[in-house]
Amino acid sequence: MKLYSRPLSPYSSIVRALAYIKDVPLKIIAPPPGFPIPEEFRAISPMNRIPVLITGSGETIVESVVIAEYLEERFPEPALLPPDSKDRALVRMFARITDLDVLTPMMKLFELHSVPKRNNAEIDAQFARLHHGLAAIEARMAQGPFALGDDISFADAWLTPTRFIFNNFRAMTGRHDLLDAYPKFDAYQQIASQHPALSRVLGEMTDGLKIFLSELEMGAA
C-alpha cells in the first residue's frame, strides 16, 4: 500500500500514527511540492488534498477518518477501537471533537493570522470555537497512560499531531497561555513521546516544521 503524506500535515500524521501502531506495510510518498498542492495531483486525489491511501488492489481512499476506519478493519491487531459498542462510540466521538472543534478552527486561525489584514471578529469566533473544543476533550481525557485511559486508541492518533501543532500555533498567535486551562491536553505531548509509534510521528512533524520554517525564511528573503 502507498500513502501520500507530508510530515507536517496533521491529517496525514493521524493516518501515519495508526499505521505505525499497527505496523502496516506502507510506502510513504510525498505529493508534488507547493501550497496549495498543484492541480496535477488531482489525478491521484480527486479532492486534491492529503492523505491519500492507495490499497494493494489499487483502490484510492481519501479522508483521514475513512482511511482510519479502513486500516482498523483491514489490520485488526492491535485493536484501536474497544470491543463494546458504547465505548467505540465514545472513542470515535473524542476523535471527531478533536478533528472538528480543535484542529479545524486552529487551522483556520493559522490562515487568518497569515494575511496582512486581520479579521478580528472571525479570529475571535474561531478562538471561541477552539476553546469549546479544548474544554470538551479536556473533560474526557484520562490521566494516562493514553488519551482515554489504559489502552491506546483512535483518540491518541488524533491527539498526537493536534497537540504538536499547538507548539508553533501559540508562538504565531502570541497566546502562550492558551493551554493553561487545559493541563491534561497540554501534558499529552509528553505522554505521546513515550510511545514508539507516536514518538515517531512527533519526530517526523518536528523535522517537517524545521523544513517549513526554513522555506518560509528563504521565501521572505
Strand order of the largest sheet: 2-1-3-4
Helix/strand order, N-terminal first: EHEEEHHHHHH
Strand content: 5-15%
The residue ranges in which pLDDT falls below 50 over 5 or more consecutive positions are: none
The outline comes out as: globular
State the helicity in percent bands: 55-70%
How far apart, in Å, are the first and last alpha carbons?
40 Å
Quantity of strands, as a count:
4
What is the mean predicted local confidence, pLDDT? 95
- The class by helix and strand makeup works out as mainly alpha
How many DSSP helices? 7
Biggest beta sheet attributes:
4 strands, mixed
Cα radius of gyration in angstroms: 17 Å
In short:
The protein is mainly alpha-helical and 221 residues long.
Write up this protein:
The chain has 221 residues and is mainly alpha-helical. Helix content is 58%, strand content 5%. The protein has seven helices and four strands. It has a four-stranded mixed beta sheet, with helices on one face. Helix 1 (10-22) links the parallel strand 1 and strand 2. Helix 5 runs parallel beside helix 7. The N and C termini lie far apart (40 Å).
